Structure formats: C-alpha cells, structure tokens
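Person: I keep going back and forth on a fold encoding question. Show me how you would write down a chain together with its backbone fold. Please set it down just below, with no commentary around it:
Helper:
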Amino acid sequence: MHQPLILSLLAGIFLIRMAEGGYNIFYSLYIVDLGYPKMAAGLLWATAVVSEVLVLYFAGPRLRNISLIPWLRITAALNVLRWLLLAFFSGLPVLIA
C-alpha cells in the first residue's frame, strides 16, 4: 500500500470520483438551465448509460493489448478534454459527449 504507483492511482481515482460527483448531481440542472427540455436531460442520461455499457462490454479484448499505465493516461486525458468542452461549449454535440 505504500508503493508510490498505488498511492498515485488511488489519488487519481479519488479526484476523478470527487469531480464526477458534482457532475452527476448538477448535470441535469445545467442542461435544463441551458434551455433544453427536461426530456432531453433524461435522454442524454439514457444515451450515456447505454454508451457506457457498450464501451465496457467491448473494451475487454482491447484492454488486454494495452498495459494499465498507458490506458489510465489515455482515459485521464479524455476526461480532462470532456471537462474542458463542457466548460467552454454548451451545444448539444458537446453535451452528448
């Protein structure tokens, strides 16, 4: 447990979960505040859930070909990109991403 790599991994997971907690709570309110109907908020959440299930289902074989550290770096970079897009753009394609 005192290995720097494990501590870094746990710290990264903690920070991502903390950031996503607020996102999960306020995302629907944000969409409605932008002027989209409440139905759109529900459909965006449904799209996100279905997409996540599909990605997790098909990711297994691909995960075996990439070691853990590069995979975590790729997903962290994509997470940062997602947050930046949400911070600066409010169009529907960005909300779906």
